[in-house]
Amino acid sequence: METRTYNVYTFQEASDKLKEKILEKYRQSKYEHGFVYASEYIDSLNAFVKSTGIQLRDYCLGSGASYTGIQWSYESYNWDFDVDSISGLKLRTWLLNNWVCNWEKGKYYHSNSTNSKGLYRWRRSKIQKTIECPFTGCCYDHDLIQPILDFIKKPNNHTTLRCIIDECFDNFITAYNEDEECQYSDDAIIETIYMNEYMFKENGEID
After folding, report:
1. Average confidence score pLDDT of the chain
2. What distance in Å separates the CA atoms of residue 52 and residue 60, rounded to the nearest whole number?
3. End-to-end CA gap in the chain
4. Is 10 in a helix, a strand, or coil?
5. pLDDT digit string (tens) for 137-174?
6. Which residues of 140-155 are buried (b: 16+ CB within 10 A; e: fewer)?
7. Most buried in the list 47, 110, 138, 202, measured by CB within 10 Å?
8. Would residue 110 be called left, alpha or beta, if left means φ above 0 and alpha means ψ between -120 and 50 degrees?
């Protein structure tokens, strides 16, 4: 039996050349395993189209996709109007009555009283409403609905429902791409390395 010894380094101890190897190899392993939060994003997307009645025809997301986009239609849903036919206050009212009302919950707040453990009692208001990640509980829900909420705050006669839905999906894709890009950035990789206290061989692989 032959015994061999080799040196291992923390990221701080590594030379600049070794650091480049470490980042390159670690980033490649990230690509191979895929975007960490991809499934959560897709869960939000599927829940959004289910809530709105939109038909999701096809989608491709992320840096590995041949193209990035979301194809949708509404033919399968029994809407009593065309998506290009209403705008302004009429569209705002329709959104409030058909979509937003299903996403709202009573505002969550605590009373001045406490329970037996000294903790504040929390309850939801029956008057004040709020929207808190209504589909999955993840922040990606808001990437989809934010253009709708923005339109409700400031409706106009130039924006149709089709425009808003397209903007919802564009906003979602942008958030997905930025989040994925962040995952593969040097800063994110180095933070993970420090957090896990990894040691590295001279070829840049984790020991």
Report:
1. 85
2. 20
3. 21
4. coil
5. 999 999 999 999 999 999 999 999 999 999 999 999 99
6. bbbbbbebbeebbeeb
7. 47
8. beta
Between β-strands 69-73 and 55-60, what pairing exists: parallel, antiparallel or unpaired? antiparallel
Amino acid at 188: A
**Dihedrals phi, psi of 173, to nearest 5 degrees:** -65, -45
**Six token digits for residue 26:** 């670690």
Please report which helix (H) or strand (E) contains residue 105, including its range: strand 105-114
Q: How many CB atoms lie within 10 A of CB 172?
A: 25
Locate 47 and state its tokens.
Answer: 């829940």
Cβ(10)–Cβ(199) below 8 Å = yes
Q: Per-domain residue ranges for the chain?
A: 16-196
Q: How far is CA 95 from CA 73, 85, 120, 129, 149, in A?
A: 17, 14, 35, 16, 9
Tokens of 131: 């929207």
Query: What pTM was estimated for this model as a whole?
Result: 0.78
